Amino acid sequence: MKQSFMNKKSVLFCASIMMFFMSVTAQITNIDKQIKSDYQAINKHLYTELIPFWEKNAVDKTYGGYMTNFDANGMEMEMPEKYLNTQCRMIWWFSQLNSVAPSAANKEKAKQGVDFLIKYLWDEKNGGWRWKVKRDGTPLDDGKIVYGQSFAIYALSDYYRSTGDVRGLEYAEKTFDLLQKYCADTHYGGYYENLESNWKPAGKGFSAGDRKGLDTHMHLMEAFTSLYLASGKELHKRKLNEIINLISEKMVDHVAGSGLNQFDMAWNPLPAINIKRTWNAEREGEKPADPTETTSYGHNTELVWLMVRGLKASRESVENYKPLFKLLLDNAVKYGVDYEKGGIYRDGLRKGGALVLEKEWWQHTEALVGFLEGYELFNDIRYYEAFQKIWSFVDAKMINHKVGEWRRLLDRDGKVIDGNIGNEWKAAYHSGRSMMECDRRLQQLMKK
After folding, report:
1. What contacts 24+ positions apart, CB below 8 Å, involve 250-254?
2. What is the CATH number of the domain that holds 144?
3. Is the pLDDT of residue 18 over 70?
4. For labelling, which of 169, 289, 292, 325 has a CA lying 20 to 30 Å from the CA of 25?
5. What is the pLDDT of residues 309-360, one digit of tens each?
6. What is the greatest pairwise CA distance in the chain?
C-alpha cells in the first residue's frame, strides 16, 4: 500500500515536471515567434516608409540644411526657423544611413547639412553654436544652449565616423573644449546649461541660468560617447565616465527608480518649471497638474540604454549599474505602460502613478529601445511584454503608414490630437534611431 502511494506520488511529480517544461518550451516558442513578427514589421516600416520619407523630403533644396515641418499628410509646411538641435539630428540621421547602407546620396545629404551648420550656425566671434537661425541662415538667437551644443558634438562625431570628413571631428572637439572652458562646474560637477551668446550664464527663472537638468546631462553623455568613439582620446573617455557617475549618483531617485528633472547648482532637486528654449516650454498638450514631483517614462527608459552604450564604449562594467537599470525599468513597467489601451504614458509621479495620459511620439521611441535593452540585460519576460504592448500601439495608432512617419501626439485611446509628423523639434532622430536600434536588437535576439 505504501509503495503504491509512493509510486503514484512519483508519477504525479514527474508529470508536473513535464508540464512545467512543456509550458516553458511553449512560452519560449511563442516569444521567438513574436520577436520574428515584430522584427519583420519594424524592418518593413524602417526601410519602406521611414527612410524613404526623409530621403525624399528632408533636404532644403533652396537654402541648404534640412526641412523638418510637415503636416499630417506629409506635406511641407512653412518653416521660418531652423533650430540647432534638429539640424544636428538630421546630420546624425543621414550619417547613420550612410553607415548602415553606404551611398553617395546619403553621404551628400549629410555633408550639405554640415556645410549649412558651419556656415550659418557656428558663431565665429564667440565660438560655439547659435541656438537658431531663419530658414535662410540669418541669425535669430545666438544663445549658447548646452543641450544644442551636445547634439552638435553627437552629430559631428558620428558624421566623421561615417564619412571620414575631418571637419566633423574638428568641430566636435572644438565644441567639447568650449564646454570645458565655459560650462564645466568645477566646484559641484556637471555643466551649466543655459548661457548667452558670450558664454555668460543666462538669467534666473524662465531662462534657467541657475538650473541643471537630467535631460541635458543625459544627452551630453550620449554626445561624449560618440566623441570618444570618434577620437579615442583619454580626456573624452574620462569626461564620459564622469558624467555617467554624476547621473547615477545625483540625478536618479534610487528608491523610487525614477529620474529627477531639475536641480540647483549644488544638485539639490528643485520643483520642475518650464524653461526657455526647451521642448517642454514650446509643445502643445496637457500640462501636469503638479510638475514638482514628476518623472518622464521616456527619459527613464532612454537613460538605461544610453548609459549601457556609454559604459560599453568606455569599457566600464555594466554589471555595477544593473541594479539602477532594473529600478528604472521596473518603475516604467509598473506605472508607465498602459496595459489596457497600449502605449506608454507621457509623464507620471516620481514615486508612482501616471499623471499625463497622452501618448507622445518620442517617449514611445525611447521606451521601445529601453525595454529591449532590459530584456537583453535581465532576460525578464516583462520587459519584452512591455516592448510588445508599446509597439502594437505605435504600429496601429501612432505611425502614419500612408506618409511613413509618426504622428506627434495622441490621446490615451489613440485618437489624434496633433497629426503633424514634423516640426522644429520633431524630425527623424527619435523615430529613426528607435527603429534602427530595434531592428538591430531584434535581429540579435533571433540569432540566440
Report:
1. 250/189, 250/190, 251/214, 251/217, 252/303, 252/324, 252/327, 252/328, 253/295, 253/350, 253/351, 254/324, 254/327
2. 1.50.10.10
3. no
4. 325
5. 999 999 999 999 999 999 999 999 999 999 999 999 999 998 889 999 999 9
6. 98
How many angstroms separate the CA atoms of 90 and 106, rounded?
A: 11
Query: Which of 193, 182, 180, 188 shows the shortest CA–CA distance to 239?
Result: 180
In a domain, 28, yes or no: no
pLDDT band at 369 (very low <50, low <70, confident <90, very high): very high
Residue 14: predicted pLDDT: 53
Q: What is the pLDDT of residue 10?
A: 58
pLDDT at 252: 97
Q: Return the number of other C-beta atoms located less than 10 Å from residue 80's C-beta.
A: 11
**Domain assignment present for 250:** yes
Amino acid letter, residue 28? I
Contact by Cβ (8 Å): 406, 391: no
Secondary structure class of 346 (helix, strand, coil)? coil
DSSP string, 245-284: HHHHHHSEETTTTEE--EE-TT--EE-----TTSHHHH--
Which residue in 361, 422, 438, 411 sits closest to 41, CA to CA?
438
Per the CB < 8 A criterion, the answer to whether 290 and 220 are in contact is no
**Structural domain total, the chain:** 1
The pLDDT-based confidence of 19 (bands split at 50, 70, 90) is: very low
Neighbouring C-alpha atoms within 13 Å toward the C-beta of 70 = 26
CA distance 397 to 87: 27
Asked whether 59 and 109 are in contact (CB, 8 A), the reply is yes
| Sequence letter at residue 50 | L
Residue 141 cell numbers, joined: 538667437
Residues forming a β-bridge with 410: 359, 416
Within-domain flag for 58 = yes
165, with CB counted inside 10 A (0-12, 13-18, 19+), is: middle
Between 76-80, 284-288, 434-438, the lowest mean confidence (pLDDT) is in: 284-288
In-domain check, residue 427: yes
Q: Is the pLDDT of residue 399 over 80?
A: yes
